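SAMPLE LOG
Freezer: B-3
Tube label: C17
Construct: single chain, 509 aa
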Amino acid sequence: MIKQMRENQTDFYDYLIAGSGFAGSITAMALANSGYRVCLLEKNEHPRFAIGESSTPIADMILRGLADRYNLPFLKKLSRYGEWQKNYPEVICGLKRGFSYYPHQSGKEFESDRFHSNELLVAASVNNRNSDTNWLRSDVDHFLVRQAEKTELDYFDNTTVKSVKRIKNKNLWTISAARDAVQMQLKCKWIIDATGSPLFSETFFGTKSSASGFSTNSRAIYTHFENAGLWNQYLEERNFITDDYPYNPDDSALHHITEEGWIWMLRFNNNLLSAGLVFDCNKDEFPRYDPAKKTWDSVIQKYPSLFEIFSNAIIAGQPGKFYKTSRLQRKLNKIYGDGWIALNHTAGFADPLHSTGIAHTLSGIEKVLNVCINVQDETEKKKYLKKMEEDFFLELSFLDTLISICYQSAGNFKLFKAAVMLYFIATIKYESSRLKGRTPETFLCAGDFELQKLAEKTAREINFFSAGKSEFDINELVSKIRSWISPFNSAGLMDPERNNMYHHTAVKL
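STRUCTURE (predicted):
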């Protein structure tokens, strides 16, 4: 419930969670349902704008696991498109059947052939009912915080934390905060940072965030549009072959590869389109101080097919503007300390290319809840948290490798298609393990030695693969990658007879 606090009233909690996005709300509800006194703080109020994200089979598996383990049945109903539409159609989402990729050249309309040489569609589900979803985060976050209000926890929105002090001999935090004009005093044993930003932990826990060690170097501009054209309609009107597609590409995480980087398109059921341009900063020539809309327009005008899609599009009322980021890559130097823990989306981020944000966040929530609920001894708890921190940095490094090889190969779509397969190999291995009842210790099996070697070997080859290589050299490297992934390849990836159309690569649900 939204609690009303009297001036300088002091309340005590086992856990205080900063940030009521989907991660903060799920964590708070799970802890409250496990018998802990929980306070959930939010500096703004819902609904609020957040950029659209897409789920994956891994994210959906974890949602179902959390639903069963912590008595959160509504999470299970959000884990498949069909169940979502049956139970919560008012919570806006979009159908996401898989991942779609199309390369573009400046000044030229999109081109392909009957072999789909310039297309790649990778299905993650066999039908719409069991499909993943695109999350309109403003709706999903609002829905989950409303569910949290029905739980036995205290929720304070429009609340600003002013100071945080650790009473070491009592293992307690004292927190001074303000909700509107009311001054609040709170005490808790643990603080969980679910803000999704490094600022809170930098301010109150003395951590430092940096992009040190990342190979990926990207930034983004983004917004939501209304009335954007449909990509599949564009293709059919120009007589491209689409009757052998595994799904409608507008019902997917749609990636348009450009000379600057790539553009994402995520559609929702209410005519909204989440779209953003991610720049590869290693070849980014656009002035970063230019207004985001000016940059967006300049890029879109370079690509006739994309310009057609956005010719009648207008920026949606929410947010009503473009957003512009600095470098996307970041990680905290520590993700836990004396009495505090940072969730994954707060602790670090690599890049949106493989849509890993929701799944990686949920994976971290699983681990944090396991430590908080099942490990009572403080010495043992620190050991588990240390292992969790080591695994997180390993996961972030693995993600960085899987992403950076795609950026480095984006100039040649044949090589890009091979590079992106390493992500799908990792997801299939992770999904298979979970379905057999064995949750891997690390997200995407980042700790698997053979997968690590595969990713590092591919990265080395692509790093040394300079522009201007002959078609023979490109084909040779693609063949190498095909042979390297073969021990893990249970889905027929890179099979030339598939013509870049994969009708179901995810394991059976």
